[in-house]
Every structure is written in C-alpha cells, then in structure tokens.
Model the fold of this input.
Amino acid sequence: MPSALRAVTTQDGAFFSTRWTVVLAAGDSGVSPARALDALAELCRIYWRPLYLFLRREGIGAEDAQDLTQGFFADLIATRSYARADREKGRFRSFLLGALKHFVADDRARAHAQKRGGGKFFQPLDENALQEVEAQVGAAAHGHPDAFFEREWAAALLRQTLDRLALECAIAGKTSLYDAMKAHVALVRDEVVPYAEMSSRLRRPIATLRSDLARMRGRYRAILREEVGSTVAQPAEVDDELRYLCRVIATT
Done:
C-alpha cells in the first residue's frame, strides 16, 4: 500500500469539487433536502470507516459506534458546525476527526443520535465492510485511536480511487481488463505482473498489456491526486498530504 502513494509523482491541474464544498453545499439553506441527503450519503460512504474505527478504538460498542458515525454526518450539516472551521488552515480529515470528537463529547448530541436511530437516516452501513473493520479492532490490541483513524483515512482514499477507476473502465467496456490488472495498478514494480498469464486469459498481446497497465496506472495516479486534492484547501498542498499519508501507512 505505501507504494501506491509513493507512485503519485505527476503534477496536473485537475482540482474538482472538494469535500469542503460538498459539506457547504449540503448545508446551504437553498439546497433541496434530497440533494443534501445525497451529499451526506456520499460523505458517509467514503469516510465512515475511519470515523467508525476511531470510535471503536475509543472503546465505544459496535452498535453505538454505528449510530454515532451515521448521526455525526447528519449533525454536521444540521448544526452547520463546519462554519467554525477554517478550511485554509487544515485538512478535511483533521476537521472531521475534531468535529467527531466534539460530537461524541457532547451529551446532548449523543442523545440526539441515539433518539434518531442512527441507521434510519442513512442507508445501512455495508455489513462486509463492518466485519472488516471489526477484524481490525480485534487484531490490534495497542495504538492510539487517532493513528487508526489516519491509517484508515488513507485506505479510504485508495479505495475511492480504485472505485472511480473501476467505474471509468466499466464505462469504457474494459471491466475484464481492469479485473485482471487491478491488483497491479498501485504497484510500481513491473516484474511482479504476470503478463504471460493475462495475455493467455485475455487473448491480448503482452506488449499491448504493458501499454494498458501503464495507462491504467497513470489514470490511477491522477485520480488519487484528485481524491487527495479534494480534502485540502490548495492544490499546492497535495504532495505534502500524499507524503504524510504514505508515512502513516508505512509506520502503523
């Protein structure tokens, strides 16, 4: 996984809608409830795992952690708490974790989340993903909850990057090619790629497969830069954030 982050060295000008702007748009009084819900669901889909893992490592039970994780995103918009954050002086990951800590510490917010029923507002959290996170909770006996959050945050960005790449390949009619290469897209060592095996299975020349993988890796790097870019205030901060996330994964 660290190599996936180190592979991002290219510069590009792409800087699409940030997570900050998603939050701001969802909290706009002029936005329809349906659109606000869609924005909340998108944030929850991408980032619930780091927050949930943090809560579990804090000693909060699984059911309460689910309620708090889902309730947090709704409370984030309902209270417009993001308005107190200075997006120019921090990362979106730092803001979310800080806001979650305040949310959990607030007894009234906790009661509100439990009364709301947590999962009734959002679609249920993915059961398979919940089992994966619970396995992490059980396997790691030591470590600060913040460190687990940071590592899972980086993993969330990598998952989102691969999800977007898979969707692009599906739209282009290249799902089979993606499925064959997805395990090698984030790696930088070409010798680990079983080109002969893939060539036989896909009936595609090895030289063509090398070009396919090079293009897929290039697109992967570009998407990852966009995903990381969406969580910082300025494009110039992307490389520093990538280096930081690489260190997080390598040392935890």
